[in-house]
Amino acid sequence: MAQFSQEFFKTAVTVDNVIFGFDEADLKVLLIKRGTEPYLDKWALPGDFVYPNEDIDAATARILEELTGLKNVYLEQVRTFGSVNRHPLGRVVSVAYFSLLKINRYTVTPASFAQKAKWHSVSKLKELAFDHNEILNACFQTLKQRVRVRPIGFELLPPKFTLTELQHLYQAILELDPENGIDKRNFRKKILSMDFIVDLNESQEGVAHRPARLYQFDKDKYERFVEEGFNFEL
Amino acid sequence: MAQFSQEFFKTAVTVDNVIFGFDEADLKVLLIKRGTEPYLDKWALPGDFVYPNEDIDAATARILEELTGLKNVYLEQVRTFGSVNRHPLGRVVSVAYFSLLKINRYTVTPASFAQKAKWHSVSKLKELAFDHNEILNACFQTLKQRVRVRPIGFELLPPKFTLTELQHLYQAILELDPENGIDKRNFRKKILSMDFIVDLNESQEGVAHRPARLYQFDKDKYERFVEEGFNFEL
DNA sequence: ATGAGTTTATGTATGATTTACACAAAGGTT
DNA sequence: AACCTTTGTGTAAATCATACATAAACTCAT
């Protein structure tokens, strides 16, 4: 390692957070419209500088809370982007995270962000500020991998959900077209063989068709299974 | 994003590289003995500051080349470590990488690193400088996952290898004890069903037992299979 | 030259998992 | 009451994973 020197303490570190939500049959991402240069009026990922006395994870959680009012949201670091010229105003290294939140818990237009914040379909995105398309894409790919081997899909659903909703969620994340994606019966068989997805003995109400049963993800139970060597895989 | 301000350009960014090698039946990692404070004389991961006009990936490649003389080595970014107090002398955020190299291509004691560099068994590591145990561990876990779904194990073997060597490599990375790990016949069956691991019609020479056939990983062939939808999985 | 020592190479039967596939039941709406 | 929409369910066939033992190829010591 080179000689320790103040010369090197000239970089800014930011976090950028790809906030995913799921609505109907569509995977969404929360973007903000920039109110300052550079990239004024362009859509961008929510992000901020990491403060001098702040851990990086904490910075991401802070931004998320400022933007949505929510704490204890699923958060995962993905990768760091630090090309020399990725930011026009200096050397800015950005640590990318994604988070998963239940979209109906999100209350719009919080005070601290003057700019517009809006959910966008992941499948139809325009050009974003900075290298945010690349960042978003990396996070989406990571989510896609993660969701097959960790039971994190539930973070995007309400506490009580139907198996059809769960299946639509997986199809959206894995980019399988509906009505050609996962076989309904096989999907349910696999899901219900996991005893931590529990039948609540309740049904939907007020729907104009046969009501679906409601299920819940039991995290404690899941963790007990993991300790006994169980390995989630879809 | 907060107001753009020079206040935030006060962080140093480093890279730390977990360099893996494989020798006989043992997964190794290349460490250097620190020649300066802090952590003088402690073993540490090779790393350095990222220069002002240097991409982060490039910094990692540079360090690797300075240390080993090797270019075009497999390199993968894992995660960024940036706890406020991880470095005693200031705010230093470190981007962790691992790399995989053919251990016999490594020539010892290169000029640019005055300190001792030495291979250590991953399985018996002492305490390292900074948070390097944590970094090493994260990289090892990532390697463990990666090796099951990407054909990167070959990066650690000589160009021509025997199936026994390959099996030992997998057992070392996956921490399966030898003689209780993977079934030899089933392992070979699976490997040889992948047509990009090609039989060279050559054998070992000068060994005091039945000589093993030599095989080679054909990367181009592999990539063609991937394009046709093939998915590596061990 | 022979035998001992060591490691390689190979196939099959059993069980487990994955896949493909179609129709009756439960509600609301008219 | 008939209709519309969506839910809920089982089985057979195919594929994949697992468990397991013995002969063949080479060196070394005698």
So what's the oligomer here? homodimer
Order of helices and strands of chain A: EEEEHEEEHHHEEH
Strand count, sense and barrel status of the largest sheet of chain A are: 7 strands, mixed
Q: Could you name the ranges of chain A where pLDDT drops below 50 across 5 or more consecutive residues?
A: none
Q: What is the helix content of chain A?
A: 25-40%
Largest interface summary: A-B, 35 and 36 residues
Number of strands of chain A: 9
Quick one: overall form of chain A? elongated
**Secondary-structure content class of chain A:** alpha+beta
Determine the N-to-C terminus distance of chain A. 44 Å
Strand content of chain A: 25-35%
In angstroms, what is the radius of gyration of chain A?
20 Å
Give the mean pLDDT of chain A.
93
Total number of helical segments of chain A? 5
